[in-house]
Amino acid sequence: MIDKRSPFFAYRYLVTPTSEQISIIQQLNKSKEELMTDIIKDLAINVKSEWTKGSKRFLFYGFQHKDDIYIIKFARETNENIYIEGDEDIEIRGIKEAKYVYLIIDTKHQIILIERNVSVFQQIESSVNILADFFRNQMRNFDYVVNIYPLVSKKKFWNYVDSAEEIYELSLEMNAPNMALFGNSDTRDVLQQIKETTNNEVFDISFKNKEGRLKVLREALGGYIDYVREVGGKYLLKFKRNGIRETKTSETDTAKTYIERKKTEKYSDEELQNISDKLNSIHTLESREDENEDEAN
């Protein structure tokens, strides 16, 4: 049976070396993309995998996979009390629940679609952070780190800028160069030089004007903005519109799509192709599908 369609938010995972040195493990003759795919494939093929972070336990159940697309149930274990009728009083019994969200991972485009379900993770950013920690933990064995960034909608950022009466701050976080041929080439070159000099994982830059007279021009900053939106990173924009000060971030601008949620029945080949088409659309900024664009920007 099929549940109603669920909202899925789009993210890009990026894998970055921790140093220029090649460890013994890296001599497996596998690229960082192949190593990451192996981890994802294991989660999708195994019936059950578990990971503990602090006192919290998380579960992964393989659901379905085909070609470069892997579908996984990602659960958070919680302890709940139920109240039942006893012979002399109401009795309290503890049970362990494993409510879950679906992950749809495209290893070709390095995209993760994460189902939004407030009964599992109240904030979707929480599920993203936990997932990033899991992958970082796994890839650290190979001297790599993993970041997961929102893939933002194709229109909203510049709509915010164009409609702003005053702009106070623009802060950008950019991952070290990761995906060849994506993002502005000049921006990639600058970030690559910084990476080679400092061995940084991410690069932060912030522009501020307390009087609200900050200029955010496409010809000056467009390359950085496109890198954040297309390859991977985050933005924060503080501005005034219609006399009201607002703050918009990548988290409030993440591209969203809708996919039918399965209980036990697998996705058909036609449904998997539809999911693949959505992922292809989301991959590049120009064709990025955002089923939220009818909402006010």
Unreliable spans? none
Structural class: alpha+beta
User: Quick one: how many beta strands?
Assistant: 12
Strand content: 35-45%
Which assembly state applies to the chains in this document? single chain
- Termini distance? 36 Å
Overall shape: it is: globular
**Alpha plus pi helix count:** 6
The helix fraction, in percent, is 25-40%
* Average pLDDT reading: 85
Q: Give the tally of structural domains.
A: 2
Order of helices and strands: EHEEEEEHEHEHEHEEEH
Largest sheet: 8 strands, antiparallel
What is the C-alpha radius of gyration, as a whole number of Å? 21 Å
Strand-helix topology:
Blueprint: E1 2-17, H1 32-45, E2 49-53, E3 56-66, E4 69-85, E5 90-106, E6 111-115, H2 124-139, E7 144-150, H3 156-163, E8 166-175, H4 185-198, E9 202-208, H5 218-230, E10 233-241, E11 244-249, E12 256-262, H6 269-283
Antiparallel strand pairs: 1-6, 1-7, 1-12, 2-3, 3-4, 4-5, 5-6, 8-9, 8-10, 10-11
